[in-house]
Amino acid sequence: MCIRDSHNSLANYYTLNFSLVQHHKYSLTEIENMYPYERDIYVDMLKDYLEKEQERLNNRR
């Protein structure tokens, strides 16, 4: 699933919300109170961070 496409279906919306709450310490209230563009910005920033972390871990091996 592409992060930017998470709003394309209701299932993707809930899947992303679940991931943000369970794995990244956002509260459901915080997520639901965000403007859609604000949520997209935070999700993009998180995606970039995770990609850089994965790259850093891969370089350590």
Question: What does the model show?
Answer:
This protein has one domain. The chain is 75% helix and 0% strand. The protein contains three helices and no strands. The mean pLDDT is 88.
- The figure for the number of domains is 1
Helix count from the secondary structure assignment: 3
Strand proportion, as a percent range, falls in under 5%
Could you give the count of β-strands?
Answer: 0
Question: CA-to-CA gap between the ends?
Answer: 27 Å
Sheet having the most strands: none
Helicity level: over 70%
Question: Helices, strands, pairings?
Answer:
Blueprint: H1 10-24, H2 28-33, H3 36-60
Task: Note the main attributes of this structure.
61 residues; mainly alpha; 3 helices; 75% helix; elongated
Give a short synopsis of this structure.
It is built from 3 helices and no strands. It has helices at about 10-25, 30-35, 35-60.
